[in-house]
């Protein structure tokens, strides 16, 4: 056994690096910035630049000379103020240079500064042109004389929206096809030309988020001058910076609604809907729909809806930012050709190695830099330098996302290389764009995009004179990515069609895919390419043929589509969605051609998937057939019915009517009930009301639908009230009075004008009445006001019910003000005073709450300090450990309440109170204990014939005796023949002056402790 000194030495040895890294991270100095950052053993991180050279970099690019161009943000929420910005001169585009090749920047230039680029989120360097994305615009800044100062500015696109918003316009990047790629998040709304006109894209659509057809975040490409504009993907949330590889594959990340662990990586299959919002209605992902995923990250992106492109990878929670494709050779092989991605939320830079999977891809995660030991490390972008090293920008801030910016005094740039690579060079700088084609073509092999751009421009300008050099590169290189870059340029020659024909039979499917894309790029007839490659063994190649067909109006398209559809493999969602993209706008012809080819053999697994995805007039009939056969299990049944939602309305009704008629004969089985319910939900309620058969079936279903949410949805849609339905809705409301279902059930009861049923419940059994009043509190229905008023003002009504009705009364401003006046004027029973004050103190209407505070001053804590409002108290955070001590010593809580077996059982057991009550409700229970008394915990008084009074909880009341447990926890039995009177008190046994023995902070600490008591 180790002795103590040896054990201490071992602990220090093991923890030493971590402790040192933690200490370094805490000092926040540039000199210590790399110590907390962890990389694999075959990578090395070094500091390239830091404050005061730069501040808050949001996006970077590296030019052909290795200079790092930086979007530097200071004037960003919450530090930006239009009248008094942090930096009046505006934000900047900086250029950082390493002039001596030691891997550290030693020169800084301000290329451009101005309030017109406040909060820039993108910079792209293309020779002497610098494209900046900022303030709802895309600007081109030109350095005409090479002095690293912008000489002129041109507006490329404007009117985008999302100014001062990280969900707005993002960085432009250069693609291997000679086009610009970029995107905006869901705070962007449109794209306009400099003259203010809306951009009309190549598909003939206005580029705006109005669901005609585009919505939310979008992805684009266009020519270098902004022409030939295409919308290549839409319905993202906050897609940040596209990355395009040499084959023309487009990749990006997309942020979820925070807290749902749904951050995703997308392969952007052209012209696809990516599912952030409902395609049909624009509803958010939380809106219930048939067949949604049980897993929230998948539900978040509507992954069970036909017409939504699948996600490549989920990375959990995060704040995803910039991305690049690493197509260099300096870093180890596992990173080559892969996405490199900066995720600022979890303080990490990752690679996502991909492999072909059917017509799409699968991906894994490989860490590049992990900054977990320095939570201020906030990587925002990553770019590849000419030498193949990675350059990473670090926002360096205590927080990220939600427009947070806690620091404007820091910012870093890091370099990732291998341990044996310390020098920083630009190896091709001397001949990037100069000299003969045979020299310039070498620069196409650079890992740096800016270098490849200059070479591309030079070779493109040479035209046919570059053909021999390009052909040599195509024929003699064994690097498929280099060959792809060459092929894009060969395609643009006058005889480009010949070069592409020669590429079609290449052994590498990635190059066959590139050839198809290049064929489209230069405007050749897609049908020709499809005919040549239609039997290609690669589903990825056939996927691209389908995308190509989507742009053709040729009469041969349906037959070609049908032949490609025959090759669909079950389970390949990428291929299935490519079929959907290709058939968009001509589903009747395409599905008809496929059915003609396959005949009666359509009903196999691949065929059923095609039917599910299709949107032809014929589809509804086929879906009906699938729903009536045995292989339509519960899961498939939901999928097929969800597909009905996307069908032309005129074709679906007959099939749905048939399903109701057939299913109506089989309501005794779960499948029959489910089929009828889902079919009726898709029929016009007016048609249901006109059919006595459908009404009868609907009434029968009311008692058979077990799921409360499904019952409410069904009842609201068919809009047929019956005693059974009304009774079921009442039971839903009182069984879960604080739930969303209770709100919906109460709302529907009032819609059906059956307030008398609610009134009867409020005057009936006490327990049910209290729970109905709780449901009315949750629902906050305006129609409930008169009902609540009657109960509150009825002295004969049960006091517990009246107290809960007081809470409900305060949920609307007009009735809250009325309650205040009743309390002020003395027209409110004294038994309701505590409940009224507590409710008024908790109301969300500030003016009513403030008036109540003046009329009824808040209780005082220890030291005669008045309490703030319950709403303010609920916002405070305390120390749960100290609260546990207070609970058991200073206060009297443990004398009456049990927690995990400790304490006395006078009041309710609090072992799981954190799962039952909100923070605000806990404060209310302590400050105003008589405002709401839990059922079965009311105080009772027993008066004996000799004048003695026993007060406490009523434990038992039988013909022989009454048992009362007093506040000291002792149960006393009183024979019935000794009792003169027994009655319930309207005040709580809990002491009303408890706040006076606690300070405000002690009270907050106690509640903090109580919130930790949850179901295990």
Automatic annotation (TrEMBL):
Residues 1-25 form the signal peptide. It holds the Pfam family DUF7133. It comes from the Bacteria. Keywords: Heme, Iron, Metal-binding, Signal. Residues 878-1014 form the Cytochrome c domain. Coiled coil: none annotated. Transmembrane segments: none annotated. GO terms for molecular function: electron transfer activity; heme binding; metal ion binding. NCBIfam families: CxxCH_TIGR02603, Piru_Ver_Nterm. PANTHER family: LARGE, MULTIFUNCTIONAL SECRETED PROTEIN (PTHR33546:SF1), LARGE, MULTIFUNCTIONAL SECRETED PROTEIN-RELATED (PTHR33546). This is Cytochrome c domain-containing protein. It comes from Stratiformator vulcanicus.
């Amino acid at each position: 056994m180790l002795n103590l000194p040896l054990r201490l030495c071992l602990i220090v040895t093991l923890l030493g690096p971590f402790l040192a890294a933690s200490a370094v991270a805490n000092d926040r100095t540039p000199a210590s910035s790399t110590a907390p950052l962890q990389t694999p053993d075959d990578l090395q991180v070094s500091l390239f630049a830091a404050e005061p050279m730069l501040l808050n970099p949001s996006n970077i690019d590296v030019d052909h000379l290795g200079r790092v161009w930086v979007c530097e943000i200071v004037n960003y929420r919450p530090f930006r103020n239009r009248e008094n910005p942090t930096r009046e001169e505006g934000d900047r585009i900086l250029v950082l240079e390493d002039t001596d090749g030691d891997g550290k920047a030693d020169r800084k230039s301000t290329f451009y500064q101005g309030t017109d680029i406040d909060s820039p989120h993108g910079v792209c360097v293309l020779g002497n042109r610098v494209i900046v994305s900022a303030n709802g615009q895309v600007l081109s800044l030109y350095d005409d004389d090479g002095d690293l100062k912008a000489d002129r500015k041109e507006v490329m696109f404007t009117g985008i929206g999302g100014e001062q918003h990280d969900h707005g316009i993002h960085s432009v990047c250069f693609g291997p096809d000679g086009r610009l790629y970029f995107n905006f998040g869901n705070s962007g709304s449109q794209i306009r030309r400099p003259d203010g006109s809306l951009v009309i894209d190549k598909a003939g659509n206005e580029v705006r988020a109005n669901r005609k057809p585009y919505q939310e975040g979008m992805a684009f490409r266009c020519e270098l001058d902004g022409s030939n504009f295409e919308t290549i993907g839409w319905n993202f949330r906050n897609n940040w910076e596209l990355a395009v590889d040499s084959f023309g594959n487009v990749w990006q990340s997309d942020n979820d609604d925070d807290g749902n662990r749904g951050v995703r990586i997308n392969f952007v299959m052209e012209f696809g809907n990516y599912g952030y919002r409902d395609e049909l209605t624009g509803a958010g992902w939380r809106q219930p729909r048939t067949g949604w995923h049980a897993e929230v990250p998948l539900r978040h992106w509507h992954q069970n809806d036909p017409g939504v492109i699948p996600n490549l990878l989920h990375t959990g929670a995060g704040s995803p930012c910039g991305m690049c494709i690493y197509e260099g050779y300096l870093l180890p092989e596992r990173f080559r050709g892969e996405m490199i991605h900066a995720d600022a939320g979890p303080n990490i830079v990752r690679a996502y190695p991909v492999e072909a999977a059917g017509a799409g891809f699968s991906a894994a995660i490989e860490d590049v830099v992990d900054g977990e030991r320095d939570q201020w490390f906030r990587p925002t972008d990553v770019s590849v330098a000419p030498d193949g090293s990675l350059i990473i920008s670090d926002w360096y801030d205590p927080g990220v996302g939600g427009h947070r910016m806690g620091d404007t005094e820091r910012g870093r740039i890091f370099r990732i290389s291998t341990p044996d690579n310390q020098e920083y060079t630009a190896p091709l700088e001397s001949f990037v764009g100069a000299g003969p084609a045979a020299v310039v073509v070498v620069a196409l092999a650079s890992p740096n995009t800016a270098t490849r751009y200059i070479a591309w421009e030079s070779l493109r300008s040479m035209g046919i004179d570059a053909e021999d050099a390009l052909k040599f590169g195509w024929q003699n290189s064994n690097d498929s990515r280099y060959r792809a870059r060459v092929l894009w340029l060969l395609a643009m020659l006058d005889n480009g069609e010949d070069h592409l024909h020669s590429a079609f039979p290449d052994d590498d499917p990635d190059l066959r895919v590139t050839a198809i894309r290049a064929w489209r790029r230069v405007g050749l007839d897609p049908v020709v390419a499809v005919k040549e490659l239609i039997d290609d063994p690669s589903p990825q190649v056939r996927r691209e043929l389908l995308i190509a067909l989507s742009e053709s109006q040729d009469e041969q398209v349906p037959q070609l589509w049908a032949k490609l559809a025959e090759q669909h493999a079950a389970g390949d969602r990428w291929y299935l969605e490519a079929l959907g993209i290709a058939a968009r706008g001509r589903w009747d012809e395409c599905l008809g051609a496929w059915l003609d080819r396959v005949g009666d053999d359509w009903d196999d697994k691949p065929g059923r998937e095609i039917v599910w995805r299709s949107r032809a007039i014929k589809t509804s009939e086929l879906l009906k057939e699938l729903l009536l056969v045995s292989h339509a299990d519960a899961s498939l049944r939901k999928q097929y019915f969800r597909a009905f939602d996307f069908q032309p309305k005129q074709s679906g009704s007959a099939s749905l009517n048939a399903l109701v008629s057939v299913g109506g004969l089989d309501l005794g089985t779960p499948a029959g009930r489910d089929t009828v319910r889902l079919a009726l939900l898709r029929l016009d309620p007016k048609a249901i009301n006109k059919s006595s058969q459908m009404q009868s079936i609907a009434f029968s279903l009311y008692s058979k639908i077990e799921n409360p949410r499904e019952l409410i949805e069904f009842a609201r849609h068919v809009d047929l009230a019956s005693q059974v339905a009304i009774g079921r809705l009442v039971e839903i409301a009182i069984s879960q009075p604080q739930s969303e279902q209770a709100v919906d059930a109460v709302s529907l009861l009032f819609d059906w004008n059956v307030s008398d049923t609610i009134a009867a419940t409020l005057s009936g059994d006490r327990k049910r009445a209290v729970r109905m009043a709780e449901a009315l509190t949750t629902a906050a229905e305006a129609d409930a006001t008169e009902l609540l008023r009657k109960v509150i003002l009825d002295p004969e009504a049960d006091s517990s019910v009246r107290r809960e009705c007081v809470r409900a009364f305060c949920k609307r401003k007009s009735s809250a003000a009325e309650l205040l006046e009743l309390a002020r004027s003395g027209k409110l029973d004294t038994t309701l005073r505590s409940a009224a004050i507590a409710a008024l103190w908790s109301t969300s209407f500030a003016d009513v709450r403030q008036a109540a505070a003046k009329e009824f001053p808040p209780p005082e804590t220890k030291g005669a300090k008045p309490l703030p409002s319950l709403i303010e108290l609920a916002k405070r955070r305390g120390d749960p450990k100290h609260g546990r001590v207070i609970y058991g010593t200073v206060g009297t809580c443990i004398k009456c309440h049990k927690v995990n077996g400790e304490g006395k059982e006078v009041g309710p057991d609090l072992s799981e109170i954190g799962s039952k009550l909100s923070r605000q409700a806990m404060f209310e229970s302590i400050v105003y204990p008589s405002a709401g008394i839990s059922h079965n915990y009311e105080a009772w008084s027993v008066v004996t014939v000799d004048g003695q009074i026993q007060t406490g909880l009523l434990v038992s009341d039988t013909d022989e005796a009454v048992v009362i447990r007093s506040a000291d926890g002792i149960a006393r039995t009183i024979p019935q023949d000794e009792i003169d009177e027994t009655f319930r008190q309207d005040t709580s046994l809990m002491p009303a002056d408890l706040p006076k023995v606690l300070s405000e902070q002690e009270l907050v600490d106690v509640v903090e402790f109580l919130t930790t008591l949850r179901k295990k």
